[in-house]
Amino acid sequence: MSVEKVAVVVAGGSGMGAAAAKRLAADGFKIAILSSSGKGEALAKELGGLGVTGSNQSNDDLQRLADLTLERFGRIDVLVNSGGHGPRAPILEITDEQWRTGMDVYLMNVIRPVRIMAPHMIKQKGGAIINISTAWVAEPNAMFPTSAVFRAGVTAYTKIFANTYAPDNVRMNNVLPGWIDSLPTVEERRDNVPMQRYGTSEEVAATIAFLASEGAGYITGQNIRVDGGVIRAL
């Protein structure tokens, strides 16, 4: 890369977020990581990057991450939005508080960091945002009701953002993982996958790295499934 580019990974202390940080570092990006556990700071140190311990539910923590990244590296080229797990229960038993938690975990985890970091991409006339969503976003599963509802909102948000900022060469896409090895293996789930296996965090990370690359420069507003063929709708 002619310019040393910088990738910010939110909720990058473990799982797919950590795998994305490692892959982007291997591809030559300088890395900044936010995680609530402290694992992100340790991983960032290992990768020669910047780590911040904080929550993606805190605008102050996200602003601190952006400010420290710009202070150290001078730019933000890629933003990867990962996240945790929200409430699960039969749909009529989910309380108002649990729905609000689900919104924070699955929708605001994208909206908050984008609101803080996208303006820097717009100013520099280039950037890529990749949101880790779910393969079932268009085929809701009652097992994960808050995920299904609010990640459908991420899809709508992504389309609006992509249309609005395409002229500024700022792209946004969603990666839709299926059953991935960061989850406990359940034989019945594995057997329902056409490829007959769980995917790996590294495979998801490779897709994220492609969407962050110049080779994906004409891709925006898309949902890219990484699910072994579980969902095959257009």
From TrEMBL:
Signal peptide: none annotated. InterPro entries: NAD(P)-bd_dom_sf, SDR, SDR_fam. Belongs to the short-chain dehydrogenases/reductases (SDR) family. This is SDR family oxidoreductase. It comes from Mesorhizobium jarvisii.
